[in-house]
Amino acid sequence: QVQLVESGGGLVQPGGSLRLSCAASGSIFSFNAMGWYRQAPGKQRELVATITSGDYTNYADSVKGRFTISRDNAVNTVYLQMNSLKPEDTAVYYCYGDLDTGWGRSDYWGQGTQVTVSS
Predict the structure, then answer these.
(1) Strands 46-52 and 67-72: what pairing?
(2) What is the reported pLDDT for 13?
(3) Residue 44 and residue 39: Cα distance in Å, rounded?
(4) Which candidate, 19, 17, 24, places its Cα nearest to that of 96?
(5) Which residue from 6, 44, 85, 87 has the fewest beta carbons nearer than 10 Å?
(6) How high does pLDDT run on average in the chain?
(7) What is the tens place of the pLDDT at every residue in 43-57?
(8) Contact 36, 17 (CB under 8 A)
(9) What's the chain look like in SS3?
(10) Contact status, residue 99 vs residue 106, Cβ threshold 8 Å
(11) Distances in Å between the alpha carbon of 95 and those of 1, 80, 118?
C-alpha cells in the first residue's frame, strides 16, 4: 500500500514562513512527478507547485518567487518552502504523487494539512 503523509502545516502570521513535507511510503519504484495542490473554502483545488523526476519545476503564478518545491529521493520526500505568506494562501494543502509502484503507475494523494495565514 502506498501512502503520502503531509506535515508542517499550522497557523502563521502574514509575512511568515512554513515548510511542508510529504513523505511517500510503500512499494514505490520511482516517481514521475510530485507536487502540492491546495483548496480554500468554497474554491476548487488548485495547483501550487510540481517537480518532475528530471527536476523540472512548475509553480502557480500566485506563488512564484515566494514558494520553493524540492525533493529528497533518498527518503522519498517532497518539500514546499513557503515564504512571505499571505492571508490568501490559507487553504488545505494536499500532496500529490504520480508514482510507479508495485501495482503500476498511478496518482496518489495525501490527506491534507491545514495552512492558516492570519494575524
Answers:
(1) unpaired
(2) 98
(3) 6
(4) 24
(5) 44
(6) 95
(7) 999 999 999 999 999
(8) no
(9) CCEEEEECCEEECCCCCEEEEEEEECCEEEEEEEEEEEECCCCCCEEEEEEECCCCEEECCCCCCCEEEEEEHHHCEEEEEECCCCHHHCEEEEEEEEEEECCEEEEEECCCEEEEECC
(10) yes
(11) 16, 10, 22
Cell of 77: 520526500
Torsion angle (degrees, nearest 10) of CA 97, 102, 106, 108: -40
**What nine digits make up the cell of 61?**
503564478
CB atoms within 10 A of CB 39: 14
Question: Order of strands, edge to edge, in the sheet holding 18-25?
Answer: 3-7, 18-25, 77-82, 67-72
